[in-house]
Amino acid sequence: MKIGVIGSMQYTEKMLEARDALICLGHDAYLTSLHKPFIGKSYEEIEPIKLFQKNNLDAIREFWHMMQGGDAVLVMNLKKEGIENYIGGNTFLEMGFAHVLNQHIFLYNPIPNINLYKSEI
User: Fold this and answer.
1) Which domain holds residue 52?
2) Is the pLDDT assigned to residue 118 strictly greater than 90?
3) What is the CATH number of the domain that holds 35?
């Protein structure tokens, strides 16, 4: 199965661990090709990198192209800024891409307990 691993780039290392675990299980798993600058960075260092990639490297379309021919996405919805099982805007957009592409959507953790999330997701 070809599986994209998505989530907040704050957790790039955990996303890489999930990718590697999926590969060990025989899957073709991948992250955005723009992930390397996030490795080992603090939250404060990550935010400007994310903005630069979105505005200058067309990061959203980059992942859209990678998703073509995929079977599924794994949403690494971890705790972020006090929100359990966080799913941010870009991740939600990528989940929408997966839906339109008829891909399975797997959540690492349950849907966040936030008004409207359960019905929307």
Assistant:
1) 2-120
2) no
3) 3.40.50
